User: Fold these one by one.
Assistant:
Number 1:
Amino acid sequence: MSENDERCPASAPESAPARFLTWLYEDQRGYIEIVAGAPFPDRPDKIDMRMDTRRWVYYDPERPDLLGAAAIYAAQLVEQYGNVYVGCRLYTRQARDTNMRS
């Protein structure tokens, strides 16, 4: 996701982050892992995953408020770090609670 793709408020269903998340997860339900990444200053070809920005947001296609919260957070990370990563799959609560990578 890039801030240049953002044409409307991040909470709007037609915003770039919201469209991307809806496309990625369709009618599934579960927790999205959202985390920022930034190039290492001395290795611009490598990305530093900023785990201090990691957030879990519940996704439910019938809850636009949850989609809006995820989209807003992703847009904030784009603005601050330039890169945002989301899991390609959704997690259950148990998987979310046990996923302790750093």
Note: The CA atoms of residues 34 and 86 lie 5 Å apart.
Number 2:
Amino acid sequence: MSSSKPGSSGTDALALAVRYTRARVRSAHEVLAYLHRRGIPPRTARRAVASAQALGVVDDRACARLWAGQWARQGYAAAAIRQKLSTKGLETRVVDAAVATLDEAEDDRARARLLIDARLRRGWAPRERLARWLAARGFDAEVIEHTLPHDEE
């Protein structure tokens, strides 16, 4: 029995899901959205994602840990990392577990300090500009105040 839609069988949908995950790490939510965009019926798409998870091709926990680590290395605060992971469609418990691998308070201060030092070496001297830039990366006011150099009087 053949369907008129390409990829509408469970096997075809699973093959699409596996192929989609080859490019980079993807969450189950992303794979499901991709299959929907490709015209896969919702029930078939959910089964394909479940099969991909069973094969270990799709793993939300691994995705969350990898993305959290990447964003931490890029200098984002734990709060910003938490928000970014949530927008990826990951469950709260998965996000919490990934962010818990980061020592939030100490790592936020250390990341902010590294970012500030790098910017100061490049000549970013205005304190207000540094503060706005850190806030845009998700650092809270306490961390910013604690890590920014104070103007000499």
Note: The two ends are 81 Å apart (CA to CA).
Number 3:
Amino acid sequence: MNKTIFPNKLTLRVQFHEVDLMGVCNNAIYFNYFETARVEYIKAAGFYRTPAEMQTSENFFLIVRNECDYAEPAIFDDELNIYTRVEFVKNSSFGFEHLVENAATGAIIARGKGVMVHINRASKRSIPLTEEIKLAISQYQNHTAV
């Protein structure tokens, strides 16, 4: 997989409390990693100017789909790189793609995807993505097709 198409890279270490009785990073933890990576992407792309704005904006994003394919286990204290990009943009939603790489070996140990929907806070209904959001994604991803 060509990692250069992923504009966002988050590096973290597997923490002791994330390891299960089998000695590996628990499968559910990867969804926490994906959530952190999505928030970092949104901040870096400039959808919101501050974290407070993210929580109080008239409109927000809601995750409606999350999936993960596991290839190899991560263990306590492994350093992981989480690569994130927007894979597609639709009328009121967009899809993220994630690669989880073992930083020491370069092996891709998991792949994830998620879909976020643009929601109006008052009506609780989906609304079209703004042109500003679409432009922010395009510029952050160096105008790669989404």
Note: The longest helix spans residues 29-45.
Number 4:
Amino acid sequence: MIDATYTQRDGAVDLRKLKLNLPSSQLEANGHLGAYPMVSPSALKVDFHTSNLSEFDTVLRDLD
């Protein structure tokens, strides 16, 4: 679930709530994401719990 608003005026995303539930992992986040320009500041609060990091093997490999 994602509840967010992008504002073109300042190129930012107001992330009210991001929630991801996987079989062995839960992630919740909220805050301010500076999307454009790329040097814009971001401030995110992330709460992440997992009992099986292998759920993220593909993503982590792609990120190198």
Note: Residues 2-63 form one domain.
